[in-house]
Amino acid sequence: MKFFINEADQVVNEGIEGLLTNPKLTRLDNFPEVRVVLRKDWDKSKVAIISGGGSGHEPTHAGFVGKGMLTAAVCGDIFASPSVDAVLSAIIATTGEKGCLLVIKNYTGDRLNFGLAAEQAREMGYKVETIIVGDDIALGEDTEQRGLAGTLFVHKSAGYLSEEGKSLQEILELVMRVAQNSYSIGLSLEEGQKFQGKEESRLDESEAELGLGIHGEPGVEKIAVAKADELMSTAVKKLQEYTSGAEYALILNNLGSVTPVEMNVLLNSFSKTSMAKNVKLLVGPGSFMTSLNMKGFSISVVKLDEEISEALLATCDPASWFISEFGKASAIKSPELPETLPFESSENSKTKKWLKEIAEELINMKDEINALDEKVGDGDAGSTFAGAGNNVLEVIDRLPYAKNWELFISIGRIFSREIGGSSGVLFSLLFTRAGNALKENDDLGKALLSGLDKMKDYGGAKQGERTMIDALQPAFEAIAKGESMEKIKLAARKGADATKEITDTKFGRSSYLSEDSLKNVPDPGAEVVARVFEKLAAII
Fold first, then answer.
1. CA torsion sign, 511 to 512 to 516 to 517?
2. pTM of the model
3. At 476, which helix (H) or strand (E)?
4. Is 155 assigned a catalytic role?
Protein backbone atom coordinates (compact mmCIF):
# COMPACT_ATOMS: atom_id res chain seq x y z
CA MET A 1 0.00 0.00 0.00
CA LYS A 2 0.99 3.62 -0.45
CA PHE A 3 0.86 6.00 2.52
CA PHE A 4 0.86 9.73 3.16
CA ILE A 5 3.74 9.70 5.61
CA ASN A 6 7.23 11.11 6.03
CA GLU A 7 9.14 8.55 8.09
CA ALA A 8 7.41 5.42 9.36
CA ASP A 9 8.86 5.79 12.84
CA GLN A 10 7.50 9.33 13.14
CA VAL A 11 3.90 8.67 12.10
CA VAL A 12 2.49 8.66 15.65
CA ASN A 13 4.40 11.78 16.70
CA GLU A 14 3.48 13.75 13.60
CA GLY A 15 -0.12 12.56 13.76
CA ILE A 16 -0.42 13.85 17.32
CA GLU A 17 1.17 17.17 16.33
CA GLY A 18 -1.43 17.46 13.57
CA LEU A 19 -4.21 16.81 16.06
CA LEU A 20 -2.82 19.50 18.35
CA THR A 21 -3.69 22.22 15.85
CA ASN A 22 -7.00 22.04 17.74
CA PRO A 23 -6.66 25.03 20.11
CA LYS A 24 -8.54 23.20 22.87
CA LEU A 25 -5.89 20.47 23.13
CA THR A 26 -2.32 20.39 24.36
CA ARG A 27 0.38 17.88 25.35
CA LEU A 28 2.95 17.37 28.06
CA ASP A 29 6.25 19.02 27.22
CA ASN A 30 8.32 15.83 27.49
CA PHE A 31 6.76 14.75 24.20
CA PRO A 32 7.54 12.56 22.29
CA GLU A 33 9.21 10.45 24.99
CA VAL A 34 5.84 10.62 26.74
CA ARG A 35 2.82 11.08 24.50
CA VAL A 36 0.00 12.51 26.58
CA VAL A 37 -2.70 14.62 24.91
CA LEU A 38 -4.93 16.54 27.30
CA ARG A 39 -7.51 19.28 27.58
CA LYS A 40 -5.99 22.74 27.65
CA ASP A 41 -8.82 24.04 29.87
CA TRP A 42 -8.56 21.32 32.53
CA ASP A 43 -8.39 22.70 36.10
CA LYS A 44 -8.41 19.47 38.16
CA SER A 45 -11.65 20.44 39.90
CA LYS A 46 -13.49 17.39 38.57
CA VAL A 47 -12.79 13.69 38.17
CA ALA A 48 -10.21 13.16 35.42
CA ILE A 49 -11.13 10.55 32.79
CA ILE A 50 -8.01 9.00 31.25
CA SER A 51 -7.75 6.34 28.58
CA GLY A 52 -5.24 5.31 25.99
CA GLY A 53 -3.38 2.43 24.44
CA GLY A 54 -1.61 1.68 21.22
CA SER A 55 -1.89 4.10 18.31
CA GLY A 56 -3.25 3.12 14.92
CA HIS A 57 -6.86 3.22 16.12
CA GLU A 58 -7.53 6.88 15.43
CA PRO A 59 -9.54 8.87 16.34
CA THR A 60 -9.31 6.68 19.44
CA HIS A 61 -7.90 7.71 21.83
CA ALA A 62 -6.64 11.28 21.50
CA GLY A 63 -9.43 12.23 19.12
CA PHE A 64 -11.90 11.86 21.98
CA VAL A 65 -10.11 14.21 24.36
CA GLY A 66 -12.32 17.19 25.09
CA LYS A 67 -15.05 18.56 27.27
CA GLY A 68 -17.65 15.87 27.90
CA MET A 69 -15.37 12.94 27.09
CA LEU A 70 -11.73 12.22 27.93
CA THR A 71 -9.56 14.50 30.02
CA ALA A 72 -6.38 12.93 28.65
CA ALA A 73 -5.23 10.18 26.31
CA VAL A 74 -1.97 8.28 26.60
CA CYS A 75 -0.67 7.20 23.19
CA GLY A 76 1.66 4.27 22.60
CA ASP A 77 3.41 3.21 19.44
CA ILE A 78 1.38 1.51 16.69
CA PHE A 79 -0.55 -1.33 18.36
CA ALA A 80 1.67 -1.10 21.48
CA SER A 81 0.66 -0.08 24.98
CA PRO A 82 2.13 3.16 26.35
CA SER A 83 4.68 2.92 29.14
CA VAL A 84 3.92 2.99 32.86
CA ASP A 85 5.68 6.35 33.11
CA ALA A 86 3.49 7.82 30.35
CA VAL A 87 0.29 6.70 32.11
CA LEU A 88 1.59 7.93 35.47
CA SER A 89 2.42 11.29 33.90
CA ALA A 90 -1.15 11.63 32.65
CA ILE A 91 -2.52 10.82 36.12
CA ILE A 92 -0.31 13.36 37.89
CA ALA A 93 -0.93 16.05 35.24
CA THR A 94 -4.73 15.86 35.43
CA THR A 95 -5.80 14.48 38.83
CA GLY A 96 -7.03 16.68 41.67
CA GLU A 97 -8.80 15.94 44.92
CA LYS A 98 -11.76 14.23 43.22
CA GLY A 99 -9.47 11.61 41.69
CA CYS A 100 -9.32 9.97 38.28
CA LEU A 101 -10.74 7.02 36.38
CA LEU A 102 -8.55 4.96 34.06
CA VAL A 103 -10.52 3.35 31.20
CA ILE A 104 -8.52 0.32 30.06
CA LYS A 105 -9.23 -1.91 27.06
CA ASN A 106 -8.83 -5.56 27.88
CA TYR A 107 -5.40 -6.27 26.42
CA THR A 108 -2.53 -7.63 28.48
CA GLY A 109 -0.13 -4.75 27.83
CA ASP A 110 -2.75 -2.12 28.66
CA ARG A 111 -3.89 -3.93 31.80
CA LEU A 112 -0.32 -4.23 33.09
CA ASN A 113 0.96 -0.75 32.27
CA PHE A 114 -2.18 1.15 33.27
CA GLY A 115 -2.59 -1.06 36.34
CA LEU A 116 0.95 -0.54 37.58
CA ALA A 117 0.68 3.20 36.95
CA ALA A 118 -2.53 3.23 39.01
CA GLU A 119 -0.78 1.43 41.89
CA GLN A 120 2.13 3.86 41.83
CA ALA A 121 -0.24 6.82 41.77
CA ARG A 122 -2.15 5.47 44.76
CA GLU A 123 1.13 5.14 46.65
CA MET A 124 1.70 8.82 45.92
CA GLY A 125 -1.68 9.68 47.43
CA TYR A 126 -3.81 9.99 44.32
CA LYS A 127 -7.35 8.63 44.28
CA VAL A 128 -7.46 6.32 41.25
CA GLU A 129 -10.04 3.83 40.06
CA THR A 130 -9.83 1.59 36.99
CA ILE A 131 -12.33 -0.08 34.72
CA ILE A 132 -11.39 -2.76 32.22
CA VAL A 133 -13.61 -2.94 29.14
CA GLY A 134 -14.01 -6.17 27.20
CA ASP A 135 -16.90 -5.86 24.77
CA ASP A 136 -15.79 -8.24 21.98
CA ILE A 137 -18.14 -11.23 22.01
CA ALA A 138 -16.48 -13.07 19.10
CA LEU A 139 -14.63 -15.52 21.33
CA GLY A 140 -17.53 -16.17 23.70
CA GLU A 141 -17.89 -15.53 27.41
CA ASP A 142 -15.46 -18.25 28.49
CA THR A 143 -12.51 -16.36 26.98
CA GLU A 144 -11.06 -12.97 27.88
CA GLN A 145 -13.08 -10.49 25.86
CA ARG A 146 -11.05 -7.85 24.07
CA GLY A 147 -11.82 -4.16 24.11
CA LEU A 148 -13.29 -2.80 20.89
CA ALA A 149 -15.35 0.25 19.95
CA GLY A 150 -17.80 -0.40 22.79
CA THR A 151 -15.15 1.26 24.98
CA LEU A 152 -16.37 4.57 23.58
CA PHE A 153 -19.69 4.16 25.39
CA VAL A 154 -17.65 4.15 28.60
CA HIS A 155 -15.61 7.19 27.54
CA LYS A 156 -18.76 9.16 26.77
CA SER A 157 -20.66 8.17 29.91
CA ALA A 158 -17.70 8.85 32.20
CA GLY A 159 -16.94 12.18 30.53
CA TYR A 160 -20.53 13.31 30.89
CA LEU A 161 -20.73 12.51 34.61
CA SER A 162 -17.36 14.13 35.21
CA GLU A 163 -18.56 17.30 33.53
CA GLU A 164 -21.65 17.18 35.74
CA GLY A 165 -19.40 17.21 38.79
CA LYS A 166 -20.20 13.67 39.94
CA SER A 167 -17.93 11.81 42.33
CA LEU A 168 -15.46 9.14 41.29
CA GLN A 169 -17.65 6.47 42.88
CA GLU A 170 -20.79 7.69 41.10
CA ILE A 171 -18.94 7.66 37.79
CA LEU A 172 -17.54 4.20 38.44
CA GLU A 173 -20.97 2.78 39.22
CA LEU A 174 -22.44 4.01 35.93
CA VAL A 175 -19.54 3.02 33.69
CA MET A 176 -19.43 -0.46 35.20
CA ARG A 177 -23.05 -0.84 34.14
CA VAL A 178 -22.21 0.51 30.70
CA ALA A 179 -19.25 -1.84 30.28
CA GLN A 180 -21.19 -4.89 31.47
CA ASN A 181 -23.94 -4.19 28.92
CA SER A 182 -21.75 -3.38 25.91
CA TYR A 183 -21.16 -5.91 23.13
CA SER A 184 -19.18 -5.72 19.90
CA ILE A 185 -18.40 -7.87 16.87
CA GLY A 186 -16.22 -7.08 13.86
CA LEU A 187 -15.97 -8.33 10.29
CA SER A 188 -13.24 -7.60 7.77
CA LEU A 189 -12.46 -8.24 4.13
CA GLU A 190 -8.78 -7.29 4.37
CA GLU A 191 -6.35 -6.80 7.23
CA GLY A 192 -4.85 -3.44 8.03
CA GLN A 193 -1.35 -2.85 6.65
CA LYS A 194 1.33 -1.30 8.85
CA PHE A 195 3.56 1.52 7.65
CA GLN A 196 6.71 -0.59 7.61
CA GLY A 197 6.99 -3.65 5.40
CA LYS A 198 4.38 -5.28 3.19
CA GLU A 199 2.43 -7.99 4.99
CA GLU A 200 1.02 -11.00 3.22
CA SER A 201 -2.73 -11.36 3.59
CA ARG A 202 -4.12 -14.41 5.33
CA LEU A 203 -7.34 -13.95 3.34
CA ASP A 204 -7.83 -14.72 -0.33
CA GLU A 205 -10.29 -12.93 -2.60
CA SER A 206 -13.17 -15.20 -1.61
CA GLU A 207 -12.65 -14.95 2.15
CA ALA A 208 -13.75 -12.57 4.90
CA GLU A 209 -13.01 -12.74 8.61
CA LEU A 210 -15.58 -12.68 11.38
CA GLY A 211 -14.52 -11.56 14.83
CA LEU A 212 -11.32 -9.58 15.05
CA GLY A 213 -8.93 -7.74 17.25
CA ILE A 214 -7.76 -4.27 16.40
CA HIS A 215 -4.06 -5.17 16.33
CA GLY A 216 -4.01 -7.42 13.30
CA GLU A 217 -4.93 -10.59 15.19
CA PRO A 218 -6.72 -13.29 13.19
CA GLY A 219 -10.48 -13.42 13.44
CA VAL A 220 -12.42 -16.20 15.06
CA GLU A 221 -13.32 -17.76 11.73
CA LYS A 222 -13.00 -17.29 8.02
CA ILE A 223 -16.26 -16.93 6.14
CA ALA A 224 -17.14 -16.54 2.49
CA VAL A 225 -17.28 -13.06 1.01
CA ALA A 226 -20.91 -12.23 0.29
CA LYS A 227 -23.20 -9.27 -0.33
CA ALA A 228 -23.39 -6.57 2.32
CA ASP A 229 -26.81 -7.70 3.57
CA GLU A 230 -25.57 -11.23 4.19
CA LEU A 231 -22.34 -10.16 5.90
CA MET A 232 -24.17 -7.73 8.16
CA SER A 233 -26.76 -10.38 8.99
CA THR A 234 -23.96 -12.79 9.97
CA ALA A 235 -22.43 -10.23 12.33
CA VAL A 236 -25.78 -9.24 13.84
CA LYS A 237 -26.80 -12.85 14.51
CA LYS A 238 -23.58 -13.33 16.44
CA LEU A 239 -24.26 -10.16 18.43
CA GLN A 240 -27.83 -11.19 19.17
CA GLU A 241 -26.59 -14.18 21.13
CA TYR A 242 -25.75 -11.67 23.88
CA THR A 243 -28.61 -9.18 23.59
CA SER A 244 -32.25 -9.20 24.56
CA GLY A 245 -35.35 -7.33 23.47
CA ALA A 246 -34.25 -4.19 25.32
CA GLU A 247 -33.45 -0.83 23.72
CA TYR A 248 -29.88 -0.22 22.53
CA ALA A 249 -27.52 2.39 21.17
CA LEU A 250 -25.46 1.29 18.17
CA ILE A 251 -21.98 2.29 16.99
CA LEU A 252 -21.39 1.46 13.32
CA ASN A 253 -17.62 1.72 13.12
CA ASN A 254 -15.36 1.91 10.06
CA LEU A 255 -12.19 -0.05 10.80
CA GLY A 256 -10.19 2.14 8.47
CA SER A 257 -10.62 1.93 4.71
CA VAL A 258 -14.29 1.27 4.00
CA THR A 259 -15.62 4.07 1.80
CA PRO A 260 -18.37 6.35 3.12
CA VAL A 261 -20.88 5.05 0.58
CA GLU A 262 -20.17 1.45 1.65
CA MET A 263 -20.70 2.44 5.28
CA ASN A 264 -24.12 3.79 4.35
CA VAL A 265 -24.86 0.54 2.50
CA LEU A 266 -23.91 -1.36 5.66
CA LEU A 267 -26.18 0.87 7.73
CA ASN A 268 -29.00 0.10 5.32
CA SER A 269 -28.15 -3.59 5.67
CA PHE A 270 -28.36 -3.30 9.45
CA SER A 271 -31.74 -1.59 9.19
CA LYS A 272 -33.07 -4.75 7.51
CA THR A 273 -32.08 -7.01 10.41
CA SER A 274 -34.38 -8.04 13.23
CA MET A 275 -32.19 -6.18 15.71
CA ALA A 276 -32.85 -2.80 14.08
CA LYS A 277 -36.21 -2.43 15.83
CA ASN A 278 -34.42 -2.43 19.20
CA VAL A 279 -31.90 0.28 18.31
CA LYS A 280 -32.95 3.77 19.40
CA LEU A 281 -29.67 5.72 19.12
CA LEU A 282 -27.04 5.63 16.38
CA VAL A 283 -23.40 6.67 16.59
CA GLY A 284 -22.03 6.86 13.06
CA PRO A 285 -21.52 5.45 10.60
CA GLY A 286 -17.96 6.67 10.83
CA SER A 287 -14.44 5.98 11.96
CA PHE A 288 -14.32 5.72 15.75
CA MET A 289 -11.88 2.94 16.55
CA THR A 290 -9.90 1.87 13.51
CA SER A 291 -7.20 -0.72 12.88
CA LEU A 292 -5.03 1.41 10.62
CA ASN A 293 -6.48 0.83 7.14
CA MET A 294 -8.42 -2.38 7.75
CA LYS A 295 -11.18 -2.98 5.19
CA GLY A 296 -13.85 -3.89 7.70
CA PHE A 297 -16.51 -2.72 10.10
CA SER A 298 -17.58 -3.39 13.65
CA ILE A 299 -20.92 -3.00 15.37
CA SER A 300 -21.15 -2.20 19.07
CA VAL A 301 -24.29 -1.90 21.17
CA VAL A 302 -25.01 -0.87 24.73
CA LYS A 303 -28.22 -1.59 26.59
CA LEU A 304 -29.97 1.68 27.34
CA ASP A 305 -31.59 3.04 30.44
CA GLU A 306 -32.54 6.63 31.20
CA GLU A 307 -29.18 7.52 32.73
CA ILE A 308 -27.08 5.95 29.97
CA SER A 309 -29.21 7.58 27.26
CA GLU A 310 -28.79 10.97 28.89
CA ALA A 311 -25.03 10.50 29.07
CA LEU A 312 -24.70 9.43 25.43
CA LEU A 313 -26.88 12.23 24.08
CA ALA A 314 -25.21 15.03 26.06
CA THR A 315 -23.21 17.46 23.93
CA CYS A 316 -19.44 17.25 24.01
CA ASP A 317 -16.49 18.93 22.33
CA PRO A 318 -14.82 16.09 20.37
CA ALA A 319 -16.03 16.23 16.79
CA SER A 320 -15.21 12.55 16.40
CA TRP A 321 -18.30 11.69 18.49
CA PHE A 322 -21.68 12.21 16.86
CA ILE A 323 -24.96 10.61 17.76
CA SER A 324 -28.55 10.78 16.59
CA GLU A 325 -31.83 8.96 16.92
CA PHE A 326 -32.09 5.87 14.75
CA GLY A 327 -35.16 5.46 12.59
CA LYS A 328 -36.40 3.94 9.39
CA ALA A 329 -35.75 5.56 6.04
CA SER A 330 -38.64 7.82 5.10
CA ALA A 331 -39.87 9.81 2.14
CA ILE A 332 -42.20 12.71 1.44
CA LYS A 333 -44.44 13.03 -1.59
CA SER A 334 -42.54 13.99 -4.71
CA PRO A 335 -43.82 16.99 -6.66
CA GLU A 336 -45.48 16.25 -9.97
CA LEU A 337 -43.29 17.15 -12.92
CA PRO A 338 -44.62 18.10 -16.35
CA GLU A 339 -45.49 15.15 -18.56
CA THR A 340 -42.49 13.80 -20.46
CA LEU A 341 -44.64 13.72 -23.57
CA PRO A 342 -46.77 16.87 -23.38
CA PHE A 343 -48.51 16.52 -26.75
CA GLU A 344 -50.97 14.06 -28.18
CA SER A 345 -49.56 11.65 -30.70
CA SER A 346 -49.99 12.45 -34.37
CA GLU A 347 -48.91 10.86 -37.63
CA ASN A 348 -46.27 11.52 -40.27
CA SER A 349 -45.06 8.16 -41.54
CA LYS A 350 -41.83 9.47 -43.13
CA THR A 351 -40.71 11.32 -40.02
CA LYS A 352 -41.57 8.34 -37.83
CA LYS A 353 -39.55 6.03 -40.10
CA TRP A 354 -36.54 8.35 -40.01
CA LEU A 355 -36.64 8.66 -36.25
CA LYS A 356 -36.98 4.91 -35.79
CA GLU A 357 -33.99 4.17 -38.00
CA ILE A 358 -31.84 6.79 -36.26
CA ALA A 359 -32.73 5.31 -32.88
CA GLU A 360 -31.80 1.84 -34.11
CA GLU A 361 -28.53 3.18 -35.50
CA LEU A 362 -27.65 4.65 -32.09
CA ILE A 363 -28.22 1.24 -30.55
CA ASN A 364 -26.25 -0.63 -33.21
CA MET A 365 -23.15 1.56 -32.86
CA LYS A 366 -23.00 1.14 -29.06
CA ASP A 367 -19.97 -1.17 -28.79
CA GLU A 368 -17.97 0.62 -31.46
CA ILE A 369 -18.49 4.05 -29.87
CA ASN A 370 -17.74 2.68 -26.40
CA ALA A 371 -14.44 1.30 -27.71
CA LEU A 372 -13.65 4.68 -29.25
CA ASP A 373 -14.58 6.46 -26.03
CA GLU A 374 -12.26 4.22 -24.00
CA LYS A 375 -9.34 5.86 -25.80
CA VAL A 376 -10.28 9.40 -24.77
CA GLY A 377 -12.96 9.10 -22.08
CA ASP A 378 -14.60 6.73 -19.65
CA GLY A 379 -15.84 4.26 -22.24
CA ASP A 380 -19.59 4.82 -21.94
CA ALA A 381 -20.48 7.24 -24.74
CA GLY A 382 -21.87 4.43 -26.87
CA SER A 383 -24.01 3.21 -23.99
CA THR A 384 -25.35 6.72 -23.40
CA PHE A 385 -26.43 7.18 -27.00
CA ALA A 386 -27.78 3.62 -27.16
CA GLY A 387 -29.84 4.44 -24.09
CA ALA A 388 -31.24 7.43 -25.96
CA GLY A 389 -32.13 5.18 -28.87
CA ASN A 390 -33.87 2.68 -26.63
CA ASN A 391 -35.86 5.38 -24.87
CA VAL A 392 -37.04 6.83 -28.16
CA LEU A 393 -38.12 3.38 -29.39
CA GLU A 394 -40.13 2.84 -26.21
CA VAL A 395 -42.35 5.81 -27.07
CA ILE A 396 -42.07 5.69 -30.86
CA ASP A 397 -45.84 5.22 -31.30
CA ARG A 398 -46.77 8.03 -28.88
CA LEU A 399 -44.91 10.95 -30.44
CA PRO A 400 -46.43 13.95 -32.28
CA TYR A 401 -45.07 13.59 -35.82
CA ALA A 402 -47.44 16.00 -37.56
CA LYS A 403 -45.79 19.11 -36.13
CA ASN A 404 -41.99 19.36 -36.02
CA TRP A 405 -41.97 21.79 -33.12
CA GLU A 406 -44.01 19.41 -30.97
CA LEU A 407 -41.75 16.51 -31.94
CA PHE A 408 -38.57 18.45 -31.11
CA ILE A 409 -39.85 19.54 -27.69
CA SER A 410 -40.93 15.96 -26.96
CA ILE A 411 -37.49 14.63 -27.90
CA GLY A 412 -35.97 17.31 -25.67
CA ARG A 413 -38.07 16.05 -22.76
CA ILE A 414 -36.98 12.45 -23.42
CA PHE A 415 -33.33 13.49 -23.36
CA SER A 416 -33.68 15.50 -20.16
CA ARG A 417 -35.62 12.85 -18.21
CA GLU A 418 -34.33 9.56 -19.52
CA ILE A 419 -30.74 10.02 -20.73
CA GLY A 420 -27.78 10.22 -18.36
CA GLY A 421 -24.61 12.25 -18.66
CA SER A 422 -23.94 15.72 -19.96
CA SER A 423 -24.76 14.75 -23.55
CA GLY A 424 -28.36 14.05 -22.58
CA VAL A 425 -28.75 17.50 -21.05
CA LEU A 426 -27.00 19.23 -23.94
CA PHE A 427 -29.21 17.56 -26.56
CA SER A 428 -32.26 18.35 -24.47
CA LEU A 429 -31.29 22.03 -24.53
CA LEU A 430 -30.75 21.85 -28.29
CA PHE A 431 -34.05 20.14 -29.16
CA THR A 432 -36.13 22.16 -26.68
CA ARG A 433 -34.84 25.50 -27.95
CA ALA A 434 -35.13 24.35 -31.58
CA GLY A 435 -38.72 23.24 -30.96
CA ASN A 436 -39.67 26.60 -29.48
CA ALA A 437 -38.00 28.37 -32.41
CA LEU A 438 -39.93 26.22 -34.89
CA LYS A 439 -43.14 27.11 -33.12
CA GLU A 440 -42.49 30.76 -33.97
CA ASN A 441 -40.92 30.30 -37.42
CA ASP A 442 -41.00 27.09 -39.45
CA ASP A 443 -37.37 27.33 -40.58
CA LEU A 444 -35.59 24.12 -39.62
CA GLY A 445 -32.05 25.37 -40.22
CA LYS A 446 -32.45 28.54 -38.18
CA ALA A 447 -34.23 26.59 -35.43
CA LEU A 448 -31.40 24.05 -35.20
CA LEU A 449 -28.77 26.80 -35.08
CA SER A 450 -30.78 28.52 -32.34
CA GLY A 451 -30.80 25.25 -30.40
CA LEU A 452 -27.07 24.87 -30.96
CA ASP A 453 -26.45 28.36 -29.58
CA LYS A 454 -28.33 27.37 -26.43
CA MET A 455 -26.20 24.21 -26.15
CA LYS A 456 -23.03 26.31 -26.50
CA ASP A 457 -24.24 28.87 -23.94
CA TYR A 458 -24.70 26.26 -21.24
CA GLY A 459 -21.99 23.79 -22.26
CA GLY A 460 -19.29 26.43 -22.74
CA ALA A 461 -17.66 24.86 -25.79
CA LYS A 462 -17.61 26.20 -29.32
CA GLN A 463 -16.59 24.88 -32.72
CA GLY A 464 -12.94 23.82 -32.88
CA GLU A 465 -12.75 22.55 -29.28
CA ARG A 466 -13.15 18.84 -30.02
CA THR A 467 -16.78 18.22 -29.10
CA MET A 468 -19.95 17.12 -30.88
CA ILE A 469 -20.38 20.78 -31.87
CA ASP A 470 -17.61 20.30 -34.46
CA ALA A 471 -19.99 18.03 -36.39
CA LEU A 472 -23.29 19.67 -35.46
CA GLN A 473 -22.45 23.25 -36.48
CA PRO A 474 -21.35 22.65 -40.10
CA ALA A 475 -24.29 20.27 -40.61
CA PHE A 476 -26.81 22.78 -39.25
CA GLU A 477 -25.28 25.60 -41.27
CA ALA A 478 -25.67 23.48 -44.39
CA ILE A 479 -29.32 22.82 -43.51
CA ALA A 480 -29.87 26.58 -43.01
CA LYS A 481 -28.43 27.23 -46.48
CA GLY A 482 -30.83 24.70 -48.04
CA GLU A 483 -28.06 22.29 -49.07
CA SER A 484 -28.78 18.74 -50.17
CA MET A 485 -28.72 15.87 -47.67
CA GLU A 486 -25.53 14.63 -49.31
CA LYS A 487 -23.74 17.92 -48.62
CA ILE A 488 -25.15 18.05 -45.10
CA LYS A 489 -23.78 14.56 -44.45
CA LEU A 490 -20.37 15.49 -45.84
CA ALA A 491 -20.25 18.64 -43.68
CA ALA A 492 -20.93 16.61 -40.55
CA ARG A 493 -18.32 14.00 -41.51
CA LYS A 494 -15.69 16.65 -42.28
CA GLY A 495 -16.33 18.26 -38.90
CA ALA A 496 -16.09 14.95 -37.02
CA ASP A 497 -12.87 13.94 -38.82
CA ALA A 498 -11.33 17.31 -38.02
CA THR A 499 -11.52 16.49 -34.31
CA LYS A 500 -8.76 13.90 -34.87
CA GLU A 501 -6.30 16.76 -35.24
CA ILE A 502 -7.58 18.92 -32.35
CA THR A 503 -5.36 18.33 -29.31
CA ASP A 504 -5.46 21.66 -27.46
CA THR A 505 -8.87 22.14 -25.85
CA LYS A 506 -10.38 23.93 -22.86
CA PHE A 507 -13.73 22.15 -22.57
CA GLY A 508 -14.98 18.60 -22.18
CA ARG A 509 -13.10 15.47 -21.22
CA SER A 510 -10.49 16.08 -23.94
CA SER A 511 -9.16 19.06 -21.98
CA TYR A 512 -7.82 16.62 -19.36
CA LEU A 513 -5.89 14.43 -21.81
CA SER A 514 -2.45 14.64 -23.39
CA GLU A 515 -1.80 15.36 -27.04
CA ASP A 516 -0.60 11.79 -27.58
CA SER A 517 -3.90 10.40 -26.24
CA LEU A 518 -5.99 12.56 -28.59
CA LYS A 519 -4.02 12.47 -31.83
CA ASN A 520 -5.83 10.63 -34.66
CA VAL A 521 -8.80 9.75 -32.44
CA PRO A 522 -12.11 11.46 -33.31
CA ASP A 523 -14.33 12.88 -30.60
CA PRO A 524 -16.92 10.16 -29.87
CA GLY A 525 -19.84 12.61 -29.75
CA ALA A 526 -18.87 14.18 -33.06
CA GLU A 527 -18.48 10.71 -34.58
CA VAL A 528 -22.00 9.78 -33.47
CA VAL A 529 -23.40 12.98 -35.02
CA ALA A 530 -21.65 12.26 -38.33
CA ARG A 531 -23.00 8.72 -38.41
CA VAL A 532 -26.54 9.93 -37.71
CA PHE A 533 -26.41 12.29 -40.69
CA GLU A 534 -24.92 9.53 -42.83
CA LYS A 535 -27.85 7.32 -41.85
CA LEU A 536 -30.31 10.09 -42.70
CA ALA A 537 -28.68 10.58 -46.10
CA ALA A 538 -29.12 6.86 -46.80
CA ILE A 539 -32.82 6.73 -45.94
CA ILE A 540 -34.17 10.09 -47.13
1. negative
2. 0.82
3. helix 469-480
4. no
